[in-house]
Fold Polysaccharide deacetylase family protein.
Amino acid sequence: MRKIVLLSLIGAVLTGCSAPVSPPAETSVPETAVHTDAPVQSEQPKISLDGLSTKAVGWGFVRKKGSAPEVPLWQQETLARFGAYYLGDTSQKEIYLTFDEGYENGYTEKILDTLKEANVPAAFFVTGPYLEGERELIERMINEGHILGNHTLHHPNLAESGDETIREELDGLSEKCRALYGIDMKYVRPPEGAYSERSLAVTQSLGYTTVLWSHAYKDWDVNYQAGAENAVKQVTPYFHNGEILLLHAVSKDNAAALGDIISSAREQGYEFKSLDELKK
């Protein structure tokens, strides 16, 4: 089980919606990152925010075909410390499919159709405008067994936000979700993949689990869509055990390619799992 955050590396950076932020200046990053098992998390004591760094850290990595990315130990330890995930059980051929939903671009219905036909669970990380403005799609996600994840009310950089702002962004969205749909949000994906020690700790103290990702590609740019075949090539060679796959639902290519992506994964022996099945 890995609970890891990955350093932004020059040449092949992957982030959610924007470029990652630099790592803490005081941290020494080894030339060669080592991909090791992070410690299994135990019950967390009451969280103290005293002395925690507010230095922004970005989430990005160099992709590796057929295996999880390598990461510096200091990032592994930071994520594990605050109960966050980027990867599932690497001893199992399992994939956790997640989508970020900042706004609706007309493709989520097709994505849901494909998931239903293939009987695949997914998590949809939504923002405030999406939660309130796309009622029919949200209700369908819930009714078809998918997870609604918290992508904040207004999509701010949480690493640059104060404690109260983080609370307002996360709890504000969760309260709206409870009022509108009668369900609780358990998982948070920080916008842009940006975090600090303190933002992770505040998120955990509010009762949420941070979920990042172990594979993504530049799919969020609606002006750069290279076709379904390209989407398949960007995803399928990089399947790995315990993968948390991030796709953006605004992508026309993703919607068209999703069925082939699912079929390819299953042909390679992978099963699709819900985030609720992550080992805690």
